[in-house]
Amino acid sequence: MSPPDPRLQLLNITKRYPSVVANSDVSLTVMPGEIHAILGENGAGKSTLMKIIYGAVKADEGEVMWNGRQVAVANPAQARKLGIGMVFQHFSLFETLTVVENIALVLDEPFDLAALAKRVTEVSERYGLPLDPFRLVHSLSVGERQRVEIVRCLLQDPKLLILDEPTSVLTPQAVLKLFETLRQLSAEGVSILYISHKLHEIQALCDSATIMRGGKVTGNAIPKDETPASLARLMIGRELPVCEAPLYTGDSRPVLEIAGLSQVSDDPFGTTLHDISLTVQAGEIVGIAGISGNGQAELLAALSGESTTARETVRLDGEAIGHLDAGRRRDRGLVFVPEERLGRGAVPALPLSRNALLTAHRQGMKRWGLVDYAKARAFAEQCIARFDVRCGGAGSAARSLSGGNLQKFIVGREIMLAPKLMIVAQPTWGVDVGAAAFLRQTLLDLSRTGVAILVVSEELEELFEISDRIAVLAAGRLSEAKPKADTDAESIGLQMSGLSNEKTPESGHAHP
Amino acid sequence: MHILEPRAQPSQLMRWTAPLIAILATLTAGSFLFWLLDKSPLESFHVFFVEPLTTSYGWSELLIKASPLILIAQGLAIGFKARIYNIGAEGQLIIGALFGGGIAIHFDGVDATWLIPAMVVAGALGGALWGALPALLKTRFNAEETLTTLMLTYVAGFIMAYMVNGPWRDPEGMNFPQSIMFGDGALFGILFDGSRVNTSIFITLAVVLAFWLFNARSFLAYQIEVGGQAPAASRYAGFSAKQTVWFSLVMSGLTAGLAGVGEVAGPVGQLNLNISPGYGFAAIIVAYLGRLHALGIVLAGFLMALIYLGGEAAQVSLQLPAAITGIFQGMLLFFLLGADAFIDNKLRRPAFGS
Fold first, then answer.
1. Angle of helix B294-318 relative to helix B12-36, nearest 10 degrees?
2. Dihedral over alpha carbons A382, A387, A390, A396 (to 10 degrees)
3. ipTM of predicted complex
């Protein structure tokens, strides 16, 4: 008996764009039931390669073999027909439709919504991705939206499942559960292409790995036989950067004080905040762990001033600011980096110079109600240079930047406002390894100059790397912030999932 | 299937070329229309777009029609940038005319230098008031301003009809629904003998300069633009959405009110039911055709005024119906919006099989 044909084989794939060669002579082989990692930084060409497999992009050269036969995947519909499912890093969901309607949209056959909803519930429970099929997508958190994407693929019985950075929004326990699911799928013969830059996950999960850098394959490895350092070298061409957290030696005083903050969400699917209390001192970074949708958006809005609360519940440097709007809080030294970069942290169509003005207008950029655009431009240029923002200059529209570079710009802009308090949501979401390390180090350095920093993140590793104390926000309740040394990922993960499964702990156990 | 997908960086050059493309497309479609009506396209265009400009009187009429269009469009452009769609400038113009005209009627026979300035102020206030109503409804009850401004236009029309049929009807006007003719003291001075061009164009000139400065340099204009393009970014930065609603609706009402005074204290000379041939609506097209830019609006205002003049000429010389003016206005807006769609988006053809 001859060995089985590979499920998927790519031979010498090349894809050129006008300014860049995204893939150059890339070959890889995935066997049935194999979990294969594609390891590489943002911009390494992973996404383009996956889009070629999925039929969203056409390769200039090279061949795609599916179960031993050459195929030309013309479009995603055809890819799905072949049995290729993909969970994108950037979600493709219609916000005004419900979960089940979104899922129905990609099915190529007629459907019965009620029956489909039942299947959605079944599949989502089986794989530990709880979902209410009748909720509108716009009310879902980023984490929940990703669940929709995963369940949507699983419903189509894929033979090859492509997952693009799927674990960034999961608790450590949920990651283990997802891995179980993926191993189960692999035992059923489903091949999995797993895109990630998290080395320990790849070592824990994957049978083999193709490592890419600059559009080329730089190595093939059996992850279990490698060390994180050797994988990192293949991936970024040097050692993985490590953040340094020096001791803070300046004066310690409470900068942000939250006391008994409770707030009912305006959004019917929002999370109500229950009696939240937290103090952030000058010179420290406090991390808030938890999965999106547990009150993160509501807490951040209440702190930034995008929604106002009772006067005494939020204090900045001793002054009650709960009733002040975002502009007035900024006047008093608060800065904020939101999770959504385009449309909230920056205006998509406006150039960076005008996006600088959005929050930096307090830096002497206006007089008599008139704007000094030369100053705004100089500010933007300084920010671009200091924070290594890769773009076409201060005149580039915000939406023309990659996610990581726009994040560097927004973080840079807020840091240059010389804040007393900095609030950051998901500081390194979608940012490549090198830039993420840079951003984390920047936050650490800023805190050691006496700035109080509050970081809300779904990435536990990140919080452990930069935070002095960590609290968990689950089901709208905030746990006590514990010094990093007194806690670990496992207990934080338990709090994240434990509370989020039991929405109302006092009303008994509602979960099977 | 073709899909429009947003361009990362829409071309600024194309943004300003789009009106020219729209004009060309309008002319092309227009010649087809003339051909269908058995008129020679070339001759028709000559009547429509060239003949009105062959006399100095024609030029003066162009100025008279362009002035209110430009004035109103300046105010509307502010709101449109904020995505506050005031489509009821016609009503604000009528109320402005009523307020200004009321002063003229009340002080009939008084020949004082303060009369015209008082009428201008009253007209501005009246228009601003009529713009403030939808602002109140929107900020207080979240009522859609596109509906309320349009509905209030009809209310304004009926108020005008009531006033010129009732309290302010000219006793010697043979029962026509119109007020007395204003006295000389309540009319803008004529600038050139033999024409109807009057000093109200200085108001337009001042407004254009003020709005140009406002758009180019003011922080408020920036806030308005951010609020229109990305409401979440506006909240994030702490800009007030209500302030934007109030400012843009009141300002656009104010400029429309000024235009109303300009008409009744200018070429019309009294209050009646025909003080405006739809300037308030045509100004919407002028604002977009001028790219919501103060100086662009000036050019667009002259083009729209030419369409008005050409439409009149076409009725007289070619026996075409009055609707021809509206058809040309409509085509212009249609082609402009079409061109804009392709500037902001690109057409993507999925690679089927190939």
1. 10
2. -40
3. 0.78
Which residues in chain B have Cβ-Cβ distances shorter than 8 Å to A346?
230, 233
Mean pLDDT of A46-53: 87
d(CA B90, CA B279): 7
Q: How many domains does chain B have?
A: 1
Indicate the residue type of B24.
L
pTM over 0.90: no
Helix (H, G, I), strand (E, B) or coil at A119: helix
Contact call for residues A427 and A396 (beta carbons, < 8 A)? no
In a domain, B176, yes or no: yes
Contacts 24+ apart (CB under 8 A), A361-366: A361/B219, A362/A330, A362/A331, A362/A417, A363/A416, A363/A417, A366/B219
**Is A348's CB within 8 Å of B229's CB?**
yes
| Full DSSP string of B132-154 | HHHHHHHHHH---HHHHHHHHHH
pLDDT for the residue B97: 97
Tens digits of per-residue pLDDT, A75-119?
888 888 899 988 876 677 888 899 999 888 877 677 788 888 998
Domains of chain A: 8-236 (3.40.50.300), 254-333+419-496 (3.40.50.300)
Query: How far apart are the C-alpha atoms of A162 and A53, rounded to whole Å?
Result: 9
Nearest to A334 by CA among A310, A306, A292: A306
Q: Give the DSSP H or E segment for A423.
A: strand A421-425
- Alpha-helical (H) ranges within A237-320 are 296-304
Chain B residues with CB-CB distance to A306 below 8 A: 235-236
Confirm whether B61 is domain-assigned: no
Q: Kindly report the nearest CA distance between residue A398 and chain B, in angstroms.
A: 9
Q: Which domain holds residue B258?
A: 70-290
Given A58, A72, A349, which is nearest B229 (Cβ)? A349
> Is residue B223 in a domain?
yes
- CA B221 to chain CA centroid, Å, is 20
Task: Please give the Cα distance from B90 to B5 (Å, whole number).
Answer: 36
Please report whether residue B75 resides in a domain. yes
Q: Give tens-digit pLDDT for B28-67.
A: 999 899 899 888 888 888 888 898 899 999 999 999 999 9
